[in-house]
Write the structure tokens for this entry.
Amino acid sequence: MELRLLSVNVGMPREIGIYQGAQVMSGIAKAPVEVSSIFVGRTNLAGDAQADLSVHGGVDKAVYCYPKEHWPWWEGEKGLPSRAGTFGENLTLEGADETEVAIGDRFRWGGAILEVSQPRAPCYKFAMYSKRPDTPALMTRSGRCGWYCRVIREGEAPVSGAVLVRDAPGGGPTVRDAFFAALDPRADAEIRSRVASTPALAASWRTAVERRMWA
């Protein structure tokens, strides 16, 4: 599998609105970089950061990827104009979606190696950034969530005309199965068990799945 890299997007935390009377800071607002290559670090791309490290960022959520394949659905059916960075992603990709990419898949991107660690769970900051209160629910119901990667090997990676090459299939459940295992109470028990037992799955997502198993 090869994923074509359409855009690399980064951003530093800034105010995106007011919630319950308090200023909301977030790194969700990202813009395409205009460089030939970028350093992929253990927890971030160069020039990228998160505001609340208790729920965002960290080694298991170092790089967020989103497939362009979903743009027609968002634009045509839900009226949300889509471009690189609309979903707060670091990498805007083309070539596969959550039904084809699996937890544990490893992709080579220049000198860096990424490993798919978990789906993305939308929160209220996505609603604030998109200026649409319904976008988190739309993402949750549809499973058009994208995926996070941990960085197995740091390195310099190309930006223009680059591809991510899957060097090692993870053999785990798809990102879509992992997403619904945690967020859909109707998810199949066997799939939920398989997701929870996947070694490459981020610990926080495993906990969320296990809560569903024990409920």
In short: The two ends are 37 Å apart (CA to CA). Residues 68 and 139 are 14 Å apart (CA to CA). Residues 2-171 form a domain with the M1 Pyruvate Kinase; Domain 3 fold (CATH 2.40.33.20).
